[in-house]
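Protein modeling request. Please complete all fields; requests missing the sequence field cannot be processed.
Requester role: graduate student
Desired output: 3D structure, token encoding
Chains: 1
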Amino acid sequence: MNFELTFEQQLLQDSVARFVEKDYGFEARTALVKSGSRCDGRHWATFANNGWLAAALPEAQGGLGGTLLDTVLIAGQFGRGLVIEPFLGCAVAAAQTLLAGATPAQRDALLPALADGSRRVALAYSEAGTRGLPAPIATCAEATAGGYVLNGTKTLVLGGTEADAFVVSAMHGGELRLFVVRADTPGVTCRAVPLHDATWAAEITFDIAAVPGDALLGEPGTGLAALQHGLFQATAALCAELVSAMDKTIEITAEYLKVRKQFGVPIGSFQVLQHRMADMAAETELARSMLYALLATVETGTPDDVQRTVSQAKSLVGRAAKYVCGQGIQLHGGIGMTDEYIVGHYFKRAVVADALFGNADLHESLVAEALQHSLNNERVQA
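Delivered output (382 residues):
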């Protein structure tokens, strides 16, 4: 895989970086959080007008025809600014699941509105018992004369509080199927859930929620694969966020060590603190390399390779982010613990990110299982 950015990709990255620097400084973000906003409409309009919502959607449905790399470039810059708008949940997880699971006619009907920002759709797949994995699930759909009836509860629905509709996974006919459910459907209840990093999720309850027949997405046998595709894309974007958060934490901490003095000298001159900064930099580079490996595998690997590498990335990058951002707080001392100072907010994001799409321990166990299965197959073949 060629990791050199094209001219267009460099322009894309630079445009997002300018937005974050100009409109999403820490003071502006703090004011937005204190206002209770869950998604600033002006910012979402900026995302749409600049094509960031459409970056990885097909041109035929109003997108720009980009790839996962474009999504990662955008998410990375959003990670530096700790952007609270639900780009990850709506523009990546939900949009990519729709793209993978919908029929051509459904794509034409649904994706253009996501690309231009006129509609927001959130992915409702996680349940209390799934630990962030797509299956097995308890939510079920039953066929009726006019369509389907859904029953169940979904948790940690990113962007769900502001969504016009949800992509919902449910068991129907013995397999996982996807449904597009309007937020105002009778029987659908949305409870807002504030997260530790100032972002919001939702708990969605479906209590005999009736939906029409055309709410069912795609063809039989495609639901699980489409959902996995959306989660793979979202996990890569989240890893990019965290790598950039680590970069920013190191930058902030390095600057602090230059100006904070003890015994008449900058504390950055103390060798023990230099060693800790070196450890932070090493962990960040390992995480960046893991992200590159994930991007390469998504482009060229088999489905099993992609699944294994996604789990490896989620585990390694998540743990590295908590370590690096936690060290940033430690090196700042008491001020790093306050909400009025930025460095602690990167650690909060790392903690929340670990809980999304399955935590580090879960994905590490999935990697171990995959390796054990591979070893067993080799023994049988031998």
